[in-house]
Amino acid sequence: MKHERLLDPLHGAEDAVVGLGTWKSAPGQVKQAVLAALDCGYRHIDCAAAYGNEQEVGGALSLRVGSGKALRREDVFVTSKLWNTKHDPEDVEEACRTSLAHLGLLPGPVPHALAHGLPAGEGADASEGRWKYFYSDTHYRDTWAAMESLVDEGLVKAIGLSNFNARQMDDIISTARHAPVVNQVPSGSYVNDHLPPPLTVTEHTHLLLRSVAVCLTAYSPLGSGDRPWAAPDDRSLLTDPRLAAIARDIRKHRPRIQQNMQVLDFSLSEDDMKLLESFNCNQRLIVPAVERDGKRVWRDAEHPHFPFNDPY
After folding, report:
1. Cα 86 to Cα 174: distance, rounded to the nearest angstrom
2. Which of 139, 236, 288, 309 could tie 299 with a disulfide, CB 3.0–4.6 Å?
3. How far apart are the two ends of the chain, measured CA to CA in Å?
């Protein structure tokens, strides 16, 4: 397998190949994680208002990025996400400004803002002993039009998508004034079925994005074993002995911030790649799931804009 550096379609410069995700980063720890990442070469920090830690991320950025600091503002790609409860066009700008303030990036644009592609939601409650979710009827095209205004106003340099399937992405592109520059989607060996042969889901997705000049950001490539909705009997990629065998062969061990940057000093053989493809169990473990009537189902699958009912 050959490594490929991604070309940022907006800036005409190499984007960070590896980014630091801040989902599930605990209070009091995320600041140190971001500082460690920036110090060892990360140039992409992935955030979201819903992660509840953007202020702490901003504290780290203020120590390393800006005039007189180790890094120039234009050298670091910071991504934030418009959460599902803020998809109403009237809420978009305020939500963006709040994230910018928390990240310490006002005045001036954040490099990337993404529309989170799970169903637009109004909120949730647990008053009857289990969580009940309430959805709005906001269409993602209307949300996108409001996000385009963020570019017009100079609040963000670029806008993109997260968890949009191919059909939804084409829908956005067909009417967009500012095309999405990235689609951030889960990508891993457990959902890599061949549709149709000989291409896998991952390959289909990558080829599609390249054909419309949209970059792929793959999140949770190792399965996010500590995701909040994980079931005890869910498969765990990090503890899969087949993956451990490949890691031993190439002398790569359990991931850490610094070690994760060392992705360009090795290659996988064709046999390794075939073995990874064989891991497929056609399960999207990263999609939030709940128990209903004794069955484990995707929490939001009945929403008309739920993206994961499509294969890619």
Report:
1. 23
2. 288
3. 22
- The model carries a pTM of 0.83
- What would the pLDDT profile of 51-108 be if each residue is shown by its tens digit? 999 999 999 999 999 989 999 988 888 999 998 889 999 999 999 999 999 999 877 6
Q: Omega before 107 cis (within 30°)?
A: yes
Catalytic residue among 42, 51, 135, 312: 51
Cα dist. 31→34, 82, 160 in Å?
Answer: 5, 21, 25
Domains, the chain: 20-309 (3.20.20.100)
Long-range interactions of 297-304: CB distance < 8 A, separation 24+: 299/133, 299/229, 300/118, 300/119, 300/133, 300/135, 303/119, 303/135, 304/119
110 or 159: which carries more pLDDT confidence? 159
Q: What is the 3-state secondary structure (H, E, C) of 12-33?
A: CCECCCCCEECCCCCCCCHHHH
Which has more confidence, 306 or 197?
Answer: 306
Residues belonging to the binding site for substrate are 139
Give DSSP secondary structure letters for 219-237: E-TT--TT-TT--TTS--G
In single-letter form, the type of residue at position 69 comes to: K
Of 116, 159, 142, 81, the C-alpha closest to 300 is 116
- Is residue 51 part of the annotated active site? The answer reads yes
Contact 223, 238 (CB under 8 A): yes
Which H or E run includes 247? helix 241-250
Lookup: tokens for 90: 């009237």
Residues 79, 83, 88, 94, CA torsion sign:
negative
Contact 287, 298 (CB under 8 A): yes
CB 89 within 8 A of CB 142: yes
Q: What is the pLDDT of residues 19-47, one digit of tens each?
A: 899 999 888 899 999 999 999 999 999 99
Question: Which residue, 207, 215, 203, 140, is CA-closest to 174?
Answer: 140
